[in-house]
């Protein structure tokens, strides 16, 4: 009998989704972990090939899972871009896991819309509430030990469920609802449509999004870990290069050891980064995040470029 194979495609800015991917892979030992940033790395030969040929990545497993954070109540722009390039013909079971701070999540339907072009739909979808990694928000706070324990218990329960559903190839769909933006239904209705639109079309190309304050010691961690290779240290100062896309992973913001990276105030939203703490997942180390940029680091060679 042919043995079962699984591929877990993941993207993580501050470690939540990476931790979940790791926990799932421990339950599904036949899974192969594939970081999405490595596949989309602007400077890799693979990406050049894709651009030249307008071709795609091809899965080679029966079971394919996607694990990523919720960005602006939908899927991150990098995940959308990647899914559009992915040939999933090999798979007969597809699942997706979103980690989020707690709002509604409208991204599974966005995925289904993309993969419907290949006559596929997600068989199982899972939502996991974890630490919020967006310190520009007024409501942001670093989770206490007690809160983190609760997240962890929740993660373990969900991973157990994912394992059961995936192993049985069952159909399952988590409830996507979450904390509302306001108590007014009509404002929520408008925001739930406006935010994903803004996220997909404008956010990643925004100029003057981050700045660095006087606490910067030029350690270079932000440059090293930027998943989009957008940050460059010039004259010992981190510069967010304008001609490069930002994946809005917030890795630079949350992993800077001196909390020296800030988000600018916008007309429509004050940023609270100067007075809030930061949130990387407690088990995530800078190198774990950096490893997402390279397939070689993980020793995975099972991806296929057509
Ligand atoms: C740009 C951005 C937008 C976000 N938008 C949402 C959101 O709309 N709803 C939500 O619940 N969490 C939101 N979050 C929080 C993350 O989804 C959450 O912390 C996630 O678990 C982070 O996963 P990661 O560490 O794997 O990147 C957002 C985070 C970022 C950086
Ligand atoms: S990680 Fe922080 S301290 Fe280090 S170079 Fe970047 S902004 Fe400066
Ligand atoms: S600039 Fe910061 S938020 Fe944007 S991709 Fe790089 S590390 Fe992520």
Mind summarizing the main beta sheet? 6 strands, parallel
Mean pLDDT score, rounded? Answer: 88
The dominant shape is globular
- Overall number of strands: 13
Q: Distance between termini?
A: 28 Å
Global Rg: 19 Å
Instruction: Tell me the fraction of residues in β-strands, as a range.
Output: 15-25%
CATH topology of the largest domain: Rossmann fold
Residue windows where pLDDT falls under 50 for at least 5 positions: 297-306
CATH hierarchy class name of the largest domain: Alpha Beta
What's the architecture of the largest domain, going by CATH? 3-Layer(aba) Sandwich
**Tally the helices: what do you get?**
11
* CATH superfamily label of the largest domain: Flavodoxin domain
- The total tally of domains equals 2
The quaternary organization reads as single chain
Question: What would your notes on this structure say?
Answer:
A six-stranded parallel beta sheet has the order 2-1-4-6-7-8. A three-stranded mixed beta sheet has the order 5-3-13. The chain has 306 residues and is an alpha/beta fold. The radius of gyration is 19 Å and the shape is globular. The C terminus is likely disordered. The chain has two domains: 184 residues, Rossmann fold (3-Layer(aba) Sandwich), CATH 3.40.50.360; 76 residues, Alpha-Beta Plaits, CATH 3.30.70. The protein is 34% helix and 17% strand. Flavin mononucleotide binds next to helix 1 and strand 6.
């Amino acid at each position: 009998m042919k043995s079962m194979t699984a591929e877990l495609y993941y993207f993580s800015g501050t470690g939540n989704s990476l931790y979940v991917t790791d926990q799932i892979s421990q339950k599904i030992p036949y899974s192969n972990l594939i970081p999405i940033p490595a596949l989309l790395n602007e400077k890799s030969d693979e990406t050049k090939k894709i651009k030249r040929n307008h071709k795609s990545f091809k899965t080679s497993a029966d079971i394919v899972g996607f694990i990523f954070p919720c960005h602006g109540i939908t899927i991150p722009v990098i995940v959308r871009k990647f899914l559009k390039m992915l040939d999933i013909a090999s798979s007969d079971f597809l699942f997706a896991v979103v980690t989020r701070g707690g709002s509604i999540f409208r991204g599974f339907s966005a995925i289904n819309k993309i993969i419907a072009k290949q006559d596929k739909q997600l068989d199982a979808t899972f939502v996991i509430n974890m630490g919020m990694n967006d310190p520009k928000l007024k409501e942001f706070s670093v989770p206490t030990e007690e809160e983190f324990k609760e997240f962890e218990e929740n993660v373990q329960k969900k991973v157990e469920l994912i394992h059961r559903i995936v192993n049985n190839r069952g159909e399952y769909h988590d409830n996507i609802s979450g904390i509302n933006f306001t108590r007014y239904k009509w404002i929520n209705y408008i925001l739930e449509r406006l935010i994903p639109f803004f996220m997909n079309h404008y956010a990643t190309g925004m100029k003057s999004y981050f700045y660095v304050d006087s606490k910067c010691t030029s350690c270079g961690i932000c440059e090293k870990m930027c998943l989009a290779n957008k940050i460059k240290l010039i004259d010992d100062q981190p510069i967010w290069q304008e001609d490069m896309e930002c994946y809005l992973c917030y890795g630079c913001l949350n992993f800077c050891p001196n909390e020296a990276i800030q988000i600018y105030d916008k007309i429509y939203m004050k940023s609270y980064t100067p007075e809030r703490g930061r949130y990387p997942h407690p088990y995530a180390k800078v190198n774990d995040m950096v490893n997402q940029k390279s397939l070689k680091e993980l020793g995975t060679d099972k991806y296929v470029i057509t």
